[in-house]
Amino acid sequence: MSGLYRKKPVVIEAWQNADDTGWPEWLSAADVGREPGGVILINTLEGIMKAQPLDWIIKGVNGEVYPCKPDIFEKTYEEIR
Questions:
Q1: Sheet arrangement for strand 13-16
Q2: Residue 42 belongs to what H/E stretch?
Q3: What is the pLDDT along the chain (81 residues), one digit of tens a residue?
Q4: Given this model, what pLDDT does residue 81 score?
Q5: How far apart are CA 74 and CA 12, in angstroms?
Q6: Which one of 1, 30, 48, 50 is most buried, by most CB atoms within 10 A?
Q7: CA 25 to chain centre
């Protein structure tokens, strides 16, 4: 079906890879690892993705975890608390 569609409002959890103070619990439970230089490796359905320092890591609505560049995150999400 063709037409115009708007993305439904969705609340996600996110964490910025900005320091080494620890991960949120939901990220600790995910299939992730670390590389030198603060890079986090995330095993996704599309394969292993890298979250560079300052990238956001998002837990999606189905529990999936994936990285997001800061500029895209800023355009897509707003903090609610």
A1: 13-16, 56-59, 65-68
A2: strand 39-44
A3: 899 988 888 899 999 999 767 889 999 889 999 999 999 999 998 999 999 999 999 999 999 999 999 999 999 999 987
A4: 79
A5: 14
A6: 30
A7: 14
Instruction: Residue 42: name the closest of 60, 12, 21, 64 by CA.
Output: 64
Q: Tokens 């910025």 — which residue?
A: 16
Write down the number of H helices and E strands in the chain: 2, 6
Domain ranges of the chain: 13-76
In three-state secondary structure terms, 43 is: strand
State the CB neighbour count (10 A cutoff) for residue 56.
Answer: 21
- Give, for 52, the enclosing helix (H) or strand (E): none
User: Which tokens hold the place of 56?
Assistant: 């956001």
| DSSP track, 11-41 | --EEEE---SS---HHHHTSSEEEEGGGEEE
